[in-house]
Amino acid sequence: MTTSTPKAVIVIFGATGDLAKRKLFPSIYRLYLNGKISEDFAIVGVGRTPFTSEEFRENVKRSVNNSEEVDHKVDTFASHFYYHPLDVENVESFLELKDLLGNLDEQYDTEGNRLFYLAMAPQFFGPIADNLKNQGLTSTNGWSRLVIEKPFGHDYESAKELNEQIRAAFTEDQIYRIDHYLGKEMVQNIEVIRFANAIFEPLWNNHYISNIQITSSETLGVEDRGRYYESSGAIRDMIQNHMMQMVALLAMEPPISLDAAEIRSEKVKVLRALRSLSEQEVNDYFVRGQYGKSVINDQELLGYREEKSVDPESNTETFVSGKLMIDNFRWAGVPFYIRTGKRMKVKSTEIIVQFKDLPMNLYFNKGENVHPNLLVIHIQPDEGITLHLNAKKGDGLATSTPIKLNYCSNCGDKLNTPEAYERLIYDCMLGDSTNFTHWDEVALSWKFVDTIAQVWEKEKAQNFPNYESGSMGPKESDGLLDKDGFHWWPIGTTIE
Ligand SMILES: NC(=O)C1=CN([C@@H]2O[C@H](COP(=O)(O)OP(=O)(O)OC[C@H]3O[C@@H](n4cnc5c(N)ncnc54)[C@H](OP(=O)(O)O)[C@@H]3O)[C@@H](O)[C@H]2O)C=CC1
Ligand SMILES: O=C1O[C@H](COP(=O)(O)O)[C@@H](O)[C@H](O)[C@H]1O
């Protein structure tokens, strides 16, 4: 039975790693503090490091105390944590883990519900799923669910192979593929803004929208993830998953209900309608970039090629911008421009919907630029929306001036916005897969991205590095819009 305070044993594979420390423990703690999970839960951390449960609990306490919550409940919270040293390549130790889970099921009255969170490198996903099933860890009276971290494959073929391995042990409805963007407040708000407002939905099509721009820019470089990033690049790291998911949510038809399967089915239709590119077209529709070294605020910043574990002649892109066309009735002719990169000017994710100009507008002086209506969806750091309109100037003349209507959902109390992982772990415990990616979505986005990645792997970029840290990427990215008569709208503005 689904309850709003679910009970379960959560097993975290990779519990000594970075993701567990920075995101998972603090998120579970917040669920606990907010009463979203009852006292009937246990967490088992798994890794090769030979910790005792006591040492593990101290790590957990340090990680949650680093978050903004400082609370007396931390000791009780940490008492729910257990550590099981295990090399996932050793089948025997899964049997010991099974005994531990059986005991914890009884001790915490969790009704046999088990959530297995794979916070480990993807080559382990298949073997872990296999061992969980074959060693009987999923044979319980309750539910068993598998949460899988990114990256889900390196391309369509490897993703398909991985999916087959996992599907041999778990059914599709037991698999929760994480895309943490789907846990963000304003990404979840896209559907509500679109489908709960009579002023938007009738205009949400090629009659009234001229283009849509989605930017997710970061100021940090690749940091210490050079090894992973070298085989990924921005196209696989950000475009294949987060950016494509935002496109699907912006472009989908209204679902017939809020059921996860109905929403997914609409998103899948968008991905199917994406205009696929031939190899010759890739560089007409997509631009790649790589950051060079630079000095910002007297601080010397390394170029990508000088970063740790990066090839000094690396061909890996740290920036991508592109134009997507969705060839269906609603969107024919409307470009969706997407852009993401590291070491850019601002850390910001924003969606800008630009409406078409009116056929005739008497309220602008000759020669003055018309200000189009824009709907800005601020995903982060500010969360909210801004609607750019035109209104009468106070000077009595028959001209208009641009004004903004703002709504900010996190400006008052930034600390209380749930972290994406917090929502997603809770949804998984409730059995709600709406904000997780189904295999059909993963497969279609890989197929789209594969052509671009293959062309870029074959053709070494001659101009890398081609953008300065602290910029908005290479100038060719502006050219992409310029040739369609558009420009990137400024992003990263705070909601006043
Ligand atoms: N870190 C992040 O911000 C993000 C990470 N991810 C994804 O999450 C996953 C984990 O990332 P991250 O935490 O950064 O990785 P880390 O390298 O920090 O951690 C890896 C974990 O895997 C464990 N491990 C490795 N080999 C084995 C083995 N043979 N048996 C048992 N445990 C093993 C390690 O434990 P030990 O050393 O004790 O054996 C450690 O706990 C990856 O898929 C990554 O792509 C996704 C988004 C963001
Ligand atoms: O998945 C990833 O996302 C982060 C950016 O996430 P955000 O929530 O801070 O926007 C990115 O830095 C990382 O490279 C990528 O793997």
From TrEMBL:
Binding site for substrate: H180, K184, E218, D237, K342, K347
GO molecular function: glucose-6-phosphate dehydrogenase activity; NADP binding
Secreted in keyword set: no
Cellular component aspect of the GO annotation: cytosol
Positions with a binding annotation for NADP(+): G14, A15, T16, G17, D18, L19, A20, K21, R48, D87, V88, K150
Catalytic residue positions: H242 (proton acceptor)
Glucose-6-phosphate dehydrogenase NAD-binding domain ranges (all copies): 11-189
Pfam families xrefs: G6PD_C (PF02781), G6PD_N (PF00479)
The EC number(s) this enzyme carries: 1.1.1.49
The protein's annotated pathway: Carbohydrate degradation; pentose phosphate pathway; D-ribulose 5-phosphate from D-glucose 6-phosphate (oxidative stage): step 1/3
Single biological process term from Gene Ontology: glucose metabolic process
Reactions performed catalytically: D-glucose 6-phosphate + NADP(+) = 6-phospho-D-glucono-1,5-lactone + NADPH + H(+)
Keywords: Carbohydrate metabolism, Glucose metabolism, NADP, Oxidoreductase
Chain ranges of the Glucose-6-phosphate dehydrogenase C-terminal domain: 192-489
Its biological purpose: Catalyzes the oxidation of glucose 6-phosphate to 6-phosphogluconolactone.
UniProt family annotation: Belongs to the glucose-6-phosphate dehydrogenase family.
PANTHER family xref list: GLUCOSE-6-PHOSPHATE 1-DEHYDROGENASE, GLUCOSE-6-PHOSPHATE 1-DEHYDROGENASE G6PD
Protein name: Glucose-6-phosphate 1-dehydrogenase
Organism: Halalkalibacter nanhaiisediminis
